[in-house]
Design goal:
The chain has two helices and twelve strands. The chain has 196 residues and is mostly beta strands. It has one domain: Pnp Oxidase, Chain A (Roll), CATH 2.30.110. The strands form three sheets. Strands 1, 2, 3, 6, 7, 8, 9 and 10 form an eight-stranded antiparallel β-sheet that branches. A two-stranded antiparallel ribbon has the order 4-5. A two-stranded antiparallel ribbon has the order 11-12. The longest helix is centred in the middle third of the chain and has 13 residues, at 82-94.
Amino acid sequence: MATISDFKNNFKGGVRPNLFQVIINAPVFGQMNLEFLGKATSIPASTVNKFEVDYRGRKLAVPGDRVFADWSVTILNDPEWVNRTRIEQWMNAITEHSQNISSLNNSQVYGQASVTQLSREGGVLRSYRIQDIFPTECAAIELGMGSNDTVEEFVVTFAVNNFTVDSSGLDGGSSGSSVDISLGGQINLGGVNITL
């Protein structure tokens, strides 16, 4: 029977949800590093849909297409409104407020982001590269006379077309996808040394 010491040795302290970093890159404003003002986010989600095929009174579940869920970031508002202004400018460049026109071509609409899970020592445990994103909502900032002892924050929701995983040797793909593997060291094959 396992003991608490066995659990401790396998648990290894766990991973802390408050140790993360978010960076967003967009063609409109460049890089937005949310190391200090990114209050909350999530590791991106995806779903492999299923469909059923009937066969003689039974249903066979068959894997369908992968769907990427929307991704959100909660941002603390800064006194200069820098980050909210950047998101609003990006959204306005996609489609203006007063006219249904865009100042961006199709490839410029999309940005990139990364969510990095950090260890308790500050190292990188895993990074998700969220690709081909654009903001779909910059949520309201609630104001009120009774809102004491708090700071303004707002949520930005992004549509996601893809993500990959770094620092794990896993990309989630099979044929036609790259795999991110980090290796180091030296291999000797029949007298030939290969340095990695």
